[in-house]
Design a protein that fits this description.
It is a single chain. 33% of the residues lie in helices and 23% in strands. The chain is an alpha+beta fold and 347 residues long. The chain has two domains: 8-161, PurM-like, N-terminal domain (60s Ribosomal Protein L30, Chain: A, 2-Layer Sandwich), CATH 3.30.1330.10; 173-346, Phosphoribosyl-aminoimidazole Synthetase, Chain A, domain 2. α3 (115-131) links the parallel β4 and β5. α4 packs across α5 (196-206) and α6 (232-244) packs parallel to α8 (272-281).
Length: 347
Amino acid sequence: MDHTETRLTSLAHGGGCGCKLSPGVLRTLLADLPQAGPFANLLVGTETSDDAAVYRLSGDLALVATTDFFTPIVDDPFEFGRIAATNALSDVYAMGGTPVMALAVLGMPLGRISTSVVRQILAGGASVCAASGIPVAGGHSIDSPEPIYGLVALGTVHPDRVLRNSGGQAKDRLVLTKGLGIGVFSAAFKQGHLSPADYATMLASTTRLNDAGAMLGRIDGVHAATDVTGFGLLGHALEMSRGARLGIRIRMADVPLLPGAAALAARGITTGAAGRNWESYGAEIRGVDGVSAAERVLLTDPQTSGGLLIAASEPACAELLSSLRAAGLGQAAVIGEMVEGQGIDVE
């Protein structure tokens, strides 16, 4: 970027991590919003904190609708736009949907960021949408105290192939498609401790589309999916556990990590959001005494444009992993399973 510009991350009051509200606070805020029950065609509402709303339009077509936006985690405006757009589209893919259109959501501090930088942010987002085969067909912008960018993402899915986060079944295997560590990398970047190689790793992961999600509903035995974002792996796994009314067992040794993430976490580099995540749901996690402090950080690490967490029957896993790796998700791995009970056990 033009280094005469103010660093984008320095304008983000929350530190540029784009973190969500804590899971507990979010559940409280969503409690009184519409759920699917009273609305016959609302297939997915707020009842299980799913990734997107789904509304049936006809017998063989449903609309997937979501929005996601945040403050910068990098200073390059084009890359910020790419990351934010990739992250927003992930919610459509997590439902088994295919994006069809996006609208831009833009808030910029007027007088502190040039028009050129804003154009680069928008161009970055548009480039990701173009790679997904969809247009940015409009949007809305405001003057805001800090830079914010994201998308309203719209997609379609067959009503019988919607993947909810609550559909897991006992004995299902859990598959994670990307390595963890984006929050740690983001914190290291802000502190000036992120190497060029680790920065390249962060960009490659956060701009890698989860478009493989669109084919998941066509694989027999895939029962549920969600994308791992601000609540960390444990938080989003806990949403799957609650929704399915089952327990989850996670094997730390099998959880993929981004190269370099473990070393940074071992140095004590983390985000405030990881701590808030643990405070919100740590009482429902068992077995953490058997993992290191750095591993617990990574399990609660907020992910921006993280991977998909998929529940699938054991017979379906071979086809699932083959399809994911063919789609370029080489770190995809079975990390545990769904079991009778409740809460999460980490081994």
